[in-house]
Write a structure and sequence with these properties.
single chain; globular; 16 helices; alpha+beta; five-stranded mixed β-sheet; seven-stranded mixed β-sheet
Length: 430
């Protein structure tokens, strides 16, 4: 243990340990003995950000097939072993990572870890399972094409991001998913699923030394290829769109129109990230938010209204949106734009800013109550390149933001012309 890079600290009375194994795998263990449960999140730098346009959706499809068989176990064998322990195990894909997670009582932790290691180290991607999951993915894509919000969000991302992978749908398109083969999944897996690109985050009733030893037993002899480096599928040409259109429109026969106003915004690695989180909270988080009160409660313009500012390792995006009646589209656009510009031109009062801080930090605290939430959060911070200590620094940074900083950051990102995305009846959106 002594020769491994290691960090240990206390976070809200929980002992958090971070170790880097000799193969480059990062292990984070949060000792939380309150309940006899252990949750694990094994994250891989292999999400949508790492896809090429021709293979959009491959990370999602791979995640769906990952648990469907290993060199030793069939899909049925895996399901029966997990269910016999009264545990759960599943996989997923996101913009910046892929994930295999499980939850079990403490006594069964080692058994579940062994199964998870086998799934990650020797998946077989059975042809029949690949075909089944591909059909299911295409059905999901067709279903999402009928959802106005999804269409509006997708076309806005495409307009903002240009050739950057964030422009693509996480589940791909019918064309790209339909062309994916088992060989494609194997190649993607072999390139990205390697220990030096993985984070094992554990939380629950376990002792750090013992848990780390078990992870090393399961994964320690796994070595990454030495003849290739892993890089995201991004180069200098994959910057956000140089010229963002004024509007992107999809005509759809709907009873309401989806209106979105979007700007490119800071990544999680920039100091502007925290003020933008507070602006998003102030404008669009909950029934007391500025957009909800002004545009829905006072003016009756919105069926639904909010703001979106996701955490991303590369450029993020800041979006305000509304679902409104077709005859109110112009007024809705003006209303959203007016409320955003108010933050740019007038500093928030100390009271309004403190309310936003309390709301953001309160919801943040509620989002890390269970072992699963803790394991997910700290593993996610590590995969983003922030480290688990970001859990503490984020809260400190939120508390330190001033009204003047909020206004300056709003002016930097939100004062320019937004890209407007509209989905609804032809007479309303054209």
């Amino acid at each position: 243990m002594a020769d491994r890079p290691r960090m240990t600290y206390l976070s809200q009375n929980r002992s958090v340990h971070r170790v880097v194994l000799s193969n480059g795998m990062v292990v984070i263990v949060t000792e939380n003995p309150a309940a006899d449960i252990v949750a694990a999140r094994i994250l891989v730098r292999a999400g949508g950000r790492y896809e090429t346009p021709k293979q959009a959706g491959i990370a999602n499809l791979l995640s769906a097939v990952l648990t469907k068989g290993t060199e030793r176990l069939s899909s049925q064998d895996i399901a029966e072993k997990v269910e016999s322990l009264g545990a759960n195990l599943g996989s997923d894909a996101a913009s910046d990572y892929c994930l295999l997670g499980f939850k079990a009582v403490s006594a069964d932790f080692v058994d579940l870890l062994t199964i998870a290691a086998e799934i990650l180290r020797s998946p077989t991607f059975p042809e029949a399972e690949v075909e089944l999951e591909r059909r299911l993915a295409i059905q999901g894509i067709r279903s999402m094409q009928e959802q106005p919000f999804t269409i509006a969000y997708q076309q806005l991302r495409q307009a903002l991001y240009g050739s950057h992978p964030y422009a693509m749908s996480g589940i791909g398109t019918e064309e790209t998913v339909g062309q994916l083969t088992r060989d494609d999944l194997v190649a993607f897996y072999q390139h990205y699923y390697r220990p030096d690109q993985m984070v094992v985050s554990l939380a629950g009733r376990l002792r750090a030394e013992e848990a780390i030893a078990q992870v090393e037993k399961a994964f320690g002899d796994w070595r990454s290829p030495t003849d290739q480096a892993v890089v995201a599928q991004i180069d200098a040409s994959d910057a956000p769109a140089a010229e963002v259109p004024d509007r992107v429109i999809t005509v759809q026969d709907t009873q309401q129109v989806i209106v979105m106003l979007g700007h490119l915004a800071a990544s999680v690695h920039q100091s502007d990230y925290v003020p933008l989180k507070l602006i998003s909270t102030y404008l669009g988080n909950g029934l007391s938010s500025r957009l909800f009160v002004e545009l829905r409660e006072k003016r009756g313009l919105a069926y639904d209204v909010s703001a979106i500012y996701p955490t991303r390792v590369d450029w993020s995006h800041f979006i305000t949106y509304m679902g409104t009646a077709p005859e109110n589209v112009a007024i809705a656009i003006d209303g959203l734009r007016h409320e955003v510009m108010q933050v740019c031109t007038q500093a928030l009062s100390a009271e309004d800013l403190q309310i936003a801080k309390n709301k953001l930090l309160g919801q943040y605290a509620l989002g890390k109550q269970t072992n699963g939430q803790i394991a997910q959060l700290l593993g996610w911070y590590e995969i983003l390149g922030l480290g688990p200590q970001f859990d503490e620094t984020f809260q400190q940074d939120v508390a330190a933001v001033s009204p003047e900083t909020v206004q300056a950051i709003a002016q930097r990102y939100l004062a320019t012309r937004p890209c407007i995305s509209l989905v609804g009846p032809k007479d309303a959106v054209t």
